[in-house]
Every structure is written in structure tokens, then in C-alpha cells.
Amino acid sequence: MASRTARRRVGNLPAERTSFVDRRQECVDVRQALSSARMVTLTGVGGVGKTRLALRVAAQLGRSYRDGGWLVELAEVHDDDLVVHTVAQTLGIQDWSARGVEHVLADYVSDKEILVVLDNCEQVLDGCVKACAVLLDAAPELRILATSRQPLEVYGEHVVVVSTLPVPDGHHNGADAGNSVRLFAERASAAGFQPAAADSGAVAQLCRELDGIPLAIELAAARTRFLSVDELLARIGDRFQLLAGNRSALPRHQTLRATMDWSHELCSAEERLLWSRMSVFAGGVDLAAAEDVCSGSGLGAEAVLELMAALVDKSILTREPGPAGTTRYRLLATVREYGRSLLADDERAQLRRRHRDHYLALAEQGAREWFGPDQLAWRARISAEHDNLRAALEFCATQPGQVQEGLRLAGGLWFYWTACGLIAEGRQWLDRLLALDTSPTAPRATALWVCSWLASHQGDLERGRATAEGCSAVAEHLKDAGLAAFGLHLRGVDAMAEGHLEEASSLTTRAWSYHRTRPKITSPMVMSLVQSGLVACLRGETDRATAYAQECLQLTAKAGELWTRSWGLVVRGLASWMRGDADDAVVHLRTSIGIKSRFNDLFGLGMAAEVLAWSHVSRGEHARAARLFGVLDRLWQLVGVPLMGAQQLLEYRSRAEERARAALGDSAFGKAVAETANLSILEGLAAAVREKPQPSVAARKPRQGPLTRREFQVAEAIAQGLSNKEIAARLVISQRTAEAHVEHILTKLDFGSRTQVAAWIAGLPEAAT
Questions:
Q1: For the chain, what percentages of helix, strand and coil (3-state, to nearest 5) are there?
Q2: Which pLDDT belongs to residue 702?
Q3: CA–CA gap between residue 360 and residue 412 (Å, rounded)
């Protein structure tokens, strides 16, 4: 493994929020097991602390692995086929190819020194076995630490049984036996209760009654807000007396169930009702969703907030930060399972429909509002609901009569699948739902064009063309001109990828000629304009492509939209580079990368960075191009298919790389590529974007227009909505200097506010920029 030298933090292991009660020997045992076995599985009863132990060991070992420690949370994954997707997404992999996530994952981890923590494997054992096989076969320096209520039975697996905490029993009162008492005392103290010395015997007895199960002890400690230790003991004792004749062969399971029953009894009737209803959510939930889904039939929406606060006080719900300063709430997996068990079948089905309806409405609202100033907020909001969206889609795919709603949901999430980097998972849901109901409906037509969009970017041109043609057929059946335009657009995308440029040009321009007349413009509509620009570039029609790009920039500036704007900048940069104006291309492509870096659009970053590298080669800046090629080699490994698989673009890349290598020599070229080896994708690209451009090697005319090069860079940053602090980071200057630049530009342009800059930038004629 790599030495413990100072290095940036790699991985996603969460910081501990509560103290970790000493399991020193268990930590040693697990570390030793990982030193000799490539896969270690922690097993034990629910609530015994498998996850906390795994995370503690991972935190201890994380820096020993060059590529860090990564937690893959599987508690909300119930489809075996999604396990590999979840692992890939956690590692930051976006699979745009049709060759399968397993292959992309294997390629990505093949040279990694990495510790993967698979948490809560028991409900997706088959999927975990498949994922472990992919990881272990591909990466000799990779280790897996799994938690599960049963072994995975993977070849080479080493199983460590996590026991409950030792409890004082009159014979075993050593330091270890005090861990359960210590856990109770620390959690009770956090609840505002300080056990007195006189309570020690009762606390020890309580821990014995709870069999030393950490979750049960923590739940009991939370009750000290309302009850004394003696009252706790009396109540838990009564509960066990009631259950004494009904103990199962697994007493620890019965203990945990009894603790849940006891916690449930201490809740009011309304709190119990909310607890059971909130079990319908997967992962976290915000207040608005809880009020919408859980209210009604004896529970008013206005009461939900106070009831949630009460459940937080009782440690039934946990609070956690959400996007943009919001608060989210979560039921622990064991607590959720208990709440779900209290629901009757008809009530559970009704709640799942309400849950699906809530997230369908959220997805469709996001789709409507995506073409606007709140894209980054929507990205954060919808990403936080990933588990709930999966649960809603699973409901639609498995319950009779729900497929059409599922098609609405999967189709409405086009912006999530594309702009937020979930191409492969989106494609999987769409393919699954489309196969379940072939009725020629509007939801099906939408799902078909979205599926075509995803398939074509994966390089699956056959599926892309078939689904695009399917969309056109349904649109003709429905006589829906809007859906027909999407069919034209996506048929054009596939024609371009196949090299049929004249057909592609006709299809995409016809699509945009219809879309532009609509009263409400959306991002997918404007993407037909972007696609027209790309096709024009490949046909050598650079003036036409520039005109398409300028129209896109004007529309997006007016709407305050960023993501589609970044694609317009790619077209503008590509057209400029093909026209021989690499200086102009660099400005637009750097701006595009700055925008795309704020999304999870690795494919878009790849496209922009490729053309930027080619532009640097044209400017004679071969070392800088080589550094970009180094980042791109790793980026395309994550994405799956370079440059949409378009042969013409691939040839441009090949020629540019050959020129840079010839100019530098193999040794210098390899050294420049290696300079980005220890940087993340975004860090490598950000360094390239921030770096001050060097003058062109070839003689060039000075840039025309009212601003200097530096002033224009600041104006572009203002147009993107960046704060002064972000502008300072972008240009590697102090915040005070950035503020001075902004004030100077506003004065020079005679603008009263920053909002006017975006419209001015977008409306500039080519010569002025």
C-alpha cells in the first residue's frame, strides 16, 4: 500500500457524529483480517454496530490506500441489478456506454488501491456477490469491507462476527464489560441526563436486559429525557415479562424487537401513526414530503412538524443537513423496518402511491423549471431524493396498473439522467418500463425520446434509432407535433453519430424550427439547436454553427440558464477552432468548463476539454494540451465512450495528440500527462481553466472589443452568476482584486447591476468577443 505521506483526503467516508464506544480488540481483529484477506464481512444481529465498526476501521485504514476509502450505502437498494450501479456512482463513475456498467467499473478500479465499504448487503445478496466478483477480479490492490446480517459466501471471504457489547453480570465486570454502561451514560448525557452513582446498578441491569445491543441501549438512553433509570428498567422488564413465553430461537432479535415495541408504546398515538407512515420513505426526507405523503386520515398536515420534532427527541428520527441549508430526516434501517411492519397491506399500498405521486410531481416540476436560474438548486434537490426516486420507480414497475405513471416519472427525470450523470441507471429504468406497457400514449412517447437520448450517448445507436423512430410513430398516432419534434431531434442525433450529416442537419433543424415557436422553451428543445450547431461544425459550416451557438447563448442568458448554455459554448468553441481562431475557442471553452464543473456532467466536461486541448495544440501550447490529455484519458474511462463515438471527432483528437507528442517528444509528453495523475478530474480541469493563457505562438491580431482579455474573463464569470469569491478562485487573484475588477467592469460598461452582464455577453457579435 502507499506510504502514509501527507496527501489530500480521498474518499467519501463520513465523519463520526457521536462518540465511538471502545471496540479496540474488534478494530484490531478486522484490520488484521483485511491485511490477509481481500474481502472481510462483518456479520451480526441488526443494531449490533456493524456499520459503526466498519466505518471506524475504514477511517483508521483510509490513508493507507492511495485512492482512499469509499462507503457504498445499500440500505435503500432493493434491486440486485442496481448494486453495481450504486458502487459505480459512489466512486464517481458515469457509464455512457452500452458495454455494461460492470465493464466500466472493472476498467476504472483495475489500477486502484482502494477500500470499498459495502454497507447493509443482506437484502441484495446476489447483487453484492456480483459486485464483489467484479471488484476483486479486476483490482488486485482493492479491498472490500462488507456489513451484512449473513455472509455473502464470496470466494475468499473472511467473516468476522460482531458481538454485542459485554455487560456487567457480577462475574465479568472488567473494562470491556463497562462498554455497554459507558454507551448508555454517554447517550443519556447527550439527552441531558446525568446518571448518578446510585443509578449504576440499575443501568447495568438495564444493559443486561437489552443484551448489550448498541441500538437498543441508545434507544433506551434517549428515553431519559422523560423517565428515570428505574422507570426505564421497570418498563423494559415488564415488556420482557410479556414476551417471556414467546421468545424465538434468536433471543437478540427478540430483544431488539421488544425494544422497538417499548419505544413504540412510549409514543403518542399520533407519533406512532407518523412513525409507521414515514417508513414509506427511502433514505432521507424533507418536511414538505413528510407533510404531503403522511398527512390525512387522522393526521393533519399542520401537526406533522411538531410530531417529527417529538420523534427526533425520542431518537426515532435523526436530523441531517440537506441541500441549500435545508433539513432532512431519516429513520434508521431497523427503525424503518419496524414501522413498515405495523402497516396493513392496503395502507402500505396507499402510502406508496402517495409517495410515488409526490416524487412524480417533484420530477415534473424540476423538468419544467430546469431551463431557468435554479438549475444548481434543482440538481442538489433531486440528487438528495435519489433513494426515494428509485423506490417510486420500483413501485411503478412492480405494481399492476402503474407503468404509465412510471413512464411519466422516468421520462420526466431526463434532466437528472443527462445533466447529473446517471445515464446508465436512467436507461435501465426506461428500458424496463417501456417493455412492460406498449400502449401508444404520451408518457410512452416521452420515455422513448429520453431513452433514445441516453442510448445514443452510450454509443448504442441501434437502440437510439429504434426508440427515436418509436417516438415518432407514437407522436403520429397521437397527432402531437411537440412529441414529433423530439422524435426528429433524436433521430438527428443518431444520424450524426452514424456519420449521416446531411440527414442529421435536416432532422435537427426541423425539430428546432418547431420548438422555437412554442410559448414555453425547455432545455431539451434548445438542445436540438445545439445539435444543429454540432452537425454544422462537422459539415464545415462554421459560420452557420456560430450563428446557432449565438442563438443558444442569447436564449440561455435571457432565462438565466447555465447547463444548456455550457453546450452552446462548446459549439461556439468548436466552430472557432475549426475556423482557425484558437484564441476565441479557448475563451469560450474555458467558460464552458467553468459552468460544467458545477454540475455532474462529466460527458460535457470531456467534450469541452477535448476541444480546448486541440485549441492549445493549434496555439503551440503542447505541454498544456498534454496535461489536458492526461485528465481526459481518466475522464473518458469514467464516462465510457469518448466523444460520442463520432469518428470525425475521434480523428481530430488523434491528430491533435500526435502533433503534441511530436512537438514535445515522447518523454516530455509523458511527463506533462503525468502531471495530472494525482489530481481529481475536476481539480485537473480547474487548474487548466484557471491557468493564465499564454500568447499564441503564431502572430495574431489583438482581440477587438471594449474589454481587455482579463476584463472579458471577469465579465464571463459575472455572466455565469459567480460570486466575487468564486471569481477570485477562478482567476487566482485575491477577493479584493476580484471585487475591484467587477466594479471597474460595471462602470466601464455603464451597467447598473451584474444581471445585465449576462445578456450583454450573450448578445455580442463574433468580432466583439
A1: 65, 5, 30
A2: 30
A3: 8
SS3 92: coil
Rounded-to-integer distance, Cα 396 and Cα 402, Å: 5
Please state the φ and ψ torsions of residue 319, each to the nearest 5 degrees: -95, 145
Taking the CA of residue 714 as centre, how many other CA atoms within 13 Å lie in the half-sphere pointing to its CB?
24
Cα 683 to Cα 142: distance, rounded to the nearest angstrom: 24
Instruction: Give pLDDT, residue 215.
Output: 83
Measured CA to CA, the distance from residue 381 to residue 379 in angstroms comes to: 6
**What pLDDT, on the 0 to 100 scale, is given for residue 661?**
96
d(CA 526, CA 521): 7
Work out the number of other CB atoms within 10 angstroms of the CB of residue 389: 25
Q: Give pLDDT, residue 699.
A: 31
pLDDT on residue 97: 59
* Residue 51 CB contacts under 8 Å (≥ 6 apart), including other chains: 119, 120, 147
Rounded-to-integer distance, Cα 431 and Cα 521, Å:
27
Residue type, 470: G
Residue 497 CA to residue 417 CA, distance in Å, equals 20
Residue 605 CB contacts under 8 Å (≥ 6 apart), including other chains = 593, 596, 597, 635, 681, 685
CA distance 641 to 339: 44
CA distances from 533 to 103, 513, 545, 680, 720 (A): 33, 14, 4, 31, 22
pTM: 0.77
Residue 305: Cβ within 10 Å count: 12
C-alpha cell at 474: 407514437
pLDDT at position 62: 75
The ranges of the chain with pLDDT < 50 are 1-8, 171-175, 242-249, 692-705, 763-769
Contact 327/286 with Cβ under 8 angstroms?
A: yes
Provide the 3-class DSSP secondary structure of residue 751.
Answer: coil
- What are the cell numbers at 269? 398515538
Grid cell locating 559: 432565462
Whole-number Å distance between alpha carbons of 591 and 610: 14
Close Cβ partners of 153 (under 8 Å, ≥ 6 residues apart): 129
pLDDT at 324 (0 to 100): 78
